[in-house]
Amino acid sequence: MRKLSLIVFLLLMALVPLNAKREYALRDGARGAKGRVTLQPYLADSAKNTGIAIIVCPGGSYSWHDMKTEGTGVCEWLNGMGINAYLLKYRVATVAAYITGFRVLGLGNKYPDMLEDVEDALQFVYSRSAADRLDTAMIGVMGFSAGGHLAMSSYVYNRTCHKPKFVCSIYPVVSMSSKQYTHTRSRRGALGVWGQWNKQMRDSLSLEKHITKDCPPVLLVNCKDDPIVKYQNSELLDSALTAQGVEHRYIQYNTGGHGFGASEEKGTEESRQWKKEFETWISNLLQEKK
Length: 290
Known about the structure:
The protein is of the alpha/beta class. It has a single domain (21-289), classed as 3-Layer(aba) Sandwich (Rossmann fold), CATH 3.40.50.1820. It has nine helices and eight strands. The chain has an eight-stranded mixed β-sheet, with helices on both faces. Helix 4 crosses helix 5. The chain is globular, with a radius of gyration of 19 Å. It starts with a helix and ends with a helix.
């Protein structure tokens, strides 16, 4: 019987992927959360560990997550540079909620749910600094598209003492109030069916209106041929950062579109250069912090 149990156990273990990552539940039904909020660590090899830690926020119009191109692929790429990555699955409206509009009844996830989630993620990562060998002066947030809005929000609207020391916002949603440039799908995902028409809420979540001088260093990347989020979103953010004298680097490519993440296939040869630019930028930032 013992021999049979051992065989069954070994067979079950063989079904578990060798690279399976542990997920930490940041909240599971807490404070009205609909669905689990998780943080999945991708720790750098101990011999290469730079001490840098980045919370990764995939995009998806605040309605779903692109967990592959803007999630796991990004984390694995960061690991290759000795950077510790933490993949955040934050609360979103969900595709069903977005399509059916059932939040008209007051149900479903919407702001500030996702902000609370990234705040919790920052608190968790800071608490793991000793165990995961992290440099607390180099804990940041990177996000893509709607996740790029969330990455900037993790500092701009953060109500806790655990704030990012840098932000990387890649082809981000920025304005929620501009008639010409707002990505309406993300606005609806974040604010809900009725909230999307609330002028006060739209203005309050328009990043370009709320940048302050104490904002940490920012890397901002987008493409002029982006067919999803109008490129002027990044220009608005760049102007706001410049006006406040915030240390930042803005890279605008002519081609590349949207949604390429850290992929070696998506986007264009031009837009994929952002990864090399990031490597230089983060290396320089690490030297500045020393």
